[in-house]
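pipeline/complex-builder :: batch 7 item 3
reading input block
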Amino acid sequence: MDHLETRELRYFVAVAEELNFGRAAERLGIAQPPLSRAIRQLEHRLGARLLDRNRRGVALTHAGTVLLREARTALDAVGAAVRRTRRAADPQRPLALATKAGASHQLLRRLLDAVAAEPGAAPIDVILCEVGEQAGLLRSGRADVALMHHPFDDLAGFDTEALYVEGQVALLPAGHPLASRDELTLAEVQNVPDLPIARWPRLDGSYPDGPGPEVRTQSQLAQLVALGKTLLVIPASSRAWQWPEHVAVPVVDAPDVTTVIAWPPSSRSPAVAALVRTASALYDTARPAP
Amino acid sequence: MDHLETRELRYFVAVAEELNFGRAAERLGIAQPPLSRAIRQLEHRLGARLLDRNRRGVALTHAGTVLLREARTALDAVGAAVRRTRRAADPQRPLALATKAGASHQLLRRLLDAVAAEPGAAPIDVILCEVGEQAGLLRSGRADVALMHHPFDDLAGFDTEALYVEGQVALLPAGHPLASRDELTLAEVQNVPDLPIARWPRLDGSYPDGPGPEVRTQSQLAQLVALGKTLLVIPASSRAWQWPEHVAVPVVDAPDVTTVIAWPPSSRSPAVAALVRTASALYDTARPAP
DNA sequence: AACGGCTCATACCGGACGGGTATCACAGCG
DNA sequence: CGCTGTGATACCCGTCCGGTATGAGCCGTT
């Protein structure tokens, strides 16, 4: 047979993530024997061993790791199909807009105002994300559109429209010597001995090596700056979330950051199209006065 | 309930494409009543009407068109999961490389030679495509890697590495006045009255309006040029498939075309990685002598 | 070395549900 | 006013999913 059911993929993902049939079964709300049987059937249908059942637990084979990755994206796609269809069926549905918390605050406020001013425009649910969550939300259909930032975010696979281009500033603790400068260069902020760059977790949750503090959220980062433990280089508009204890100094040679509005390719529903149009109009008025 | 099974998606796609339960059931190899029931259940689970059952046939609702699109990509993803897992499980698996028939012929030949010269490299199956088929093959897991051409092909959603940059030439029928020129400009070839640009089908199979002949394959196009019915502007290396009746004249101001090797993001299996490395090495040797 | 724990696999059974056949209801059309 | 073609309904059957009970290795423990 050739066709997999999503049930089989869900089961496999649970086992592959838990690496333990018992816990996986519990998570799935079924008993362990049917799960064992389902995985065995799956292996048989694919003609591939997916798990090494050694003594004491299970390990993924190479084919298993491939399937785990592929199954996750496939399940994402199925889930997205469900959510997008439900949204499409509901004429009152609010559009879900994902954006990085604290970033592009002015732009977002103006966008929401502009949409509210339009008669008949769909209401908008704003989903505030940390770091690079927007892509996942778009892909899984939990968000209809997102504000993202080139070149920080990975825009691969989305249609986008530029909304705003801006320079970057260094955010420094107020008392620091560099904070009194009118402008800085990347070379100057790159290696400040007493303000090492903070480290963000990788996708797997581990942290790269380095001298800087480990952070997971923007609030942590903001506080660390206020405490004089680190500095960061961010788009100028992110000054919106700077604290009184922060000082922002333009970094003249930092690459420009473009705020874009992004949506899943070829899923331009009328509501999304209208929102993109409204946003683009904002861009045209925003460009003269940045 | 929240989880759809791929079976339901397959059934819906069949109905949505046939717009007729009987034919859809036949295509699926089941009887019509169970199919009706399945679709009805699907609508109930999604809480959305997908089809308008008027007298005499069915029509898609808005939600239905959304689900049709989403279901296709979701089924693609599931199919890709199956194929990629099977490939991963087979140590002898040949890598499937998709490329436009006739394009980048020299590069392909050198790539295949280079791979063959490497001890222990996986064998390569070449899939020759028309126009933009490569993206679909990559997405559905039928191909592991593809040679694509920026800016012609849509590279969104893939990781790529540049292999070759080249200018473009105008391909003209040998007897035509322009064929005797040493070089041309875009403006000159854009609107030649007796050689209108050919028209390619859109995704839905329909053709845009215009004076040029309708074509579906490169061979058709090549023959039309030889017959003095049209001209085309193509990458210089595509001269490989020019006929004796053709003349190629460089178009000096046409944008450069970059041949890239593309693969699905984050699915860089060892074999794919090795192939990309071999190809990149070719690029370095190819650049000095284009 | 024997035991108890933890793992996953096997055996078996019941019930839900997917699929089949037969038939109906309804619209268009000659 | 039948005939044709549509999808919907009714009902039955068989498969297969999921449950319980139990077995079989492998470990660490005593």
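note: Residues 20-22, 32-33, 36-37, 40, 53, 55-58 of chain A lie near DNA strand C (CB under 10 Å from a C1').
queue -> next item
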